[in-house]
Amino acid sequence: MIRRAIRTTLCCTLAFAAGACAGGSPRAGGMTGHAAASGAAARPAEAGQPLTPLVGHHQHLYSPALAARAAGTPEAPVELPADLARVLRAREAGWNDSVALAPLYAPDALVLDSRSGRWIRGRSAAAAFVGTQFGRPYVFTPVSASVDGSEAHVAGHFTRTVEGQPRHFGQFVIALRKGEAGEWRIAAESPSFPQAPAPGPVTADQLVAQMDEAGVRLGVVLSLAYGWGSPLRAAEEDEYAKVRAENDWTAREVARFPDRLVAFCGVNPLKDYALAEIERCSRELGMRGLKLHFGNSGVDVRNPEHVQKVRAVFRAANGLGMPILAHLWTRDPSYGRAHSEIFLEQILPEAPDVTVQVAHMADAGPGYTFDAALEPLAQAVAAGDPRTRNLYFDATTNVTLQMPVAQAELLARRIREIGPERILFGSDGAWGGNPTIRQAWATFRGVLPLSEAEFRTIAQNVAPYLR
Ligand SMILES: [Zn+2]
Question: Mean pLDDT over residues 198-226, rounded?
């Protein structure tokens, strides 16, 4: 009764805007809350209303500390010999003028079109290409140069000034050769433009603005603190202090929007400080749940020592009443069924009283290519396996515009096996090529072959830990 009262109050607070929570009653012994949402979905008053998810169940902020780490230590620009510098100044001045650029190239010049992977050959083709590739002027920031007789190379960044700050938007390597009159000519050039530049900080203000744009009421913010204890990177000095600082920052940001955001603590479950940090996140920072990223943390569930540590973390979270969001996918090339079976048999049973949310449908996203990992979990849910009683799945970044039809159909089949009432919408951090929340939902709806009623159920799902 108490639980229902809490659920009704919270759920209605959340769902008010979408009208999803008026007086539904929980199914006996079933998954409370979903009945309310589904019941509301059937009401004719809702027909024709735009369908937007109530909750982004898998979102991230990006702290200034992580942004600074991603940007790396800026390399000092190098001074070029005057005759080489002259060539680059002429390239900058002629940025959109193929006629002015042509004399800078050797007759047999070679330029890479990094977007198509095509090599462009010959002076006039190279100049014509380079003179039409840029929308605005830029400068070269050389970070390395060498001259050896009649050969030279320069490497560095394409740079523009944005809001008073130099911003590198591409990289180049230019090889030069001296012509007959002793002047430097560009012999070969390979520019590249990163698809997913390192993001600047993403604050709670920015996330809430994105939620508003999408009509999303509530966001689950997963701290990226485990990234400071990741074996995929060089070891950090004062690692645990950095993990704490990241969780502190995330908790502070989230606390600025108490009616819109909840925070999940991040920690690498293999670390000696994992249990202490989880307890601190819960008791001192008031973080609602726990995010574990097996891939980023180097967890191998086929290693019994790792399983012991992860089990202890699941037990601790269960004891603290913290729901767990588990990103099961790892870089192990054999990742698949065996990993999910170990999770189901040895890890999940340690947290029987809290919601466990499997991230990205047991995949990594973007896309859906690790069906072998989801299949045993989906089948266990479909068979009513009691261990899966509190198991949910977020379909974060699994649906993409480029997704093959067969992949979308397979994912839809798994969603039906699990039941759409256990599928949670989320969109991940909107950087590194990931879409915004609004874009992610539009793609999800546009690409997956689900019925309108199934989309409605997913849109109105509110994870039990938010009710
Ligand atoms: Zn994520």
Answer: 95
